[in-house]
Design goal:
The protein is an alpha/beta fold. The protein is built from eleven helices and 14 strands. The chain has helices at about 45-55, 75-85, 105-110, 125-130, 135-150, 170-180, 195-200, 205-215, 290-300, 310, 325-330; strands spanning about 1-5, 10, 10-15, 60-65, 90-95, 115-120, 155-160, 185-190, 220, 235, 245, 260-265, 270, 280. Helix 1 (about 45-55) packs across helix 9 (about 290-300) and helix 2 (about 75-85) runs parallel beside helix 3.
Amino acid sequence: MLRDRFGRVHDYLRISVTDRCNLRCMYCMPEEGMAFADSAELLTYDEIEEVVSVAAELGIRKLRITGGEPLVRPGLDGLIRRLASIPGIRDIALTTNGLLLGRAAASLKAAGLNRVNISLDTLDPARFRLIARNGELKRVLESIEAAADAGLTPIKLNCVLLRGINEDEIPAFLRLAYERPLHIRFIEYMPIGHDDENWKNHYLPLGRVLEVAEAEGYRLFPIRERTASGPSDDYGLEGGAGSLGLIHPVSDQFCRRCNRLRLTADGHLKPCLYWVDELNVRPAIGDREALKAVFGRAVDIKPENHEMAAKLFGGAQSHKPTERRMSQIGG
């Protein structure tokens, strides 16, 4: 098993297949000036399959395909089909902005994809253009229906809360979770690859969601123990069809139950989303024992926690934060 120095067992690998995206969401990348990897710099699907095959031997059971926007890379259903056939892999999920999911949902399900997370930061079309700087909300909403029709459930909707921009939509998202069998996950804005004043000005702790829920008359109850792996604190809504999740890495970090490693599109294994540390897997491709050693080294160097809150308040940090943007790591 991939057990680190702090007793955390890692059974979950997030795989970025591209750093490119058809949106420019304000919390993920700048509107202009991003330098993207050439196709030759990306891991091939053959290489990804080899890495996952070795990871499965070490106890990896769950995969998540990410980007950038993973659906901008051609042939993704073929990769998923190959990964689903690897012994030991039990669950494959996809994180997507939803613009291209509608026409791909059925083929992805047939290939072996189990479920999807869809980014949805607003329910207002004009505000969607403000936050995403491109695209149409209508296509994302259509993709949610297509995912449901294809059986890619449970469907999780990821909403990054931004102070002064979409916090007034908390009641609308609560109502959506109450009326529909959807899992709405509110996520704190993280300083990944940047810690500028824009982040500090728009950061909003998720305690605000619980305050609004109480004011709106919703009765929440926890539906998962906090000791479970995964970053989300989950709540049901009494009488409601869906549920809520709170992912608050800044105000209440989830590091103590972290069970994941990340493989970037350009072939680096990251033990932690926030810190700069990463290991290049490319030199080990073709040598299974060497790949196992890279995974072993990754869990050996994984720190106990990140220190995003220290960055918010200007405190000292024990490690060097990454300079990669979220889209370059894998959201």
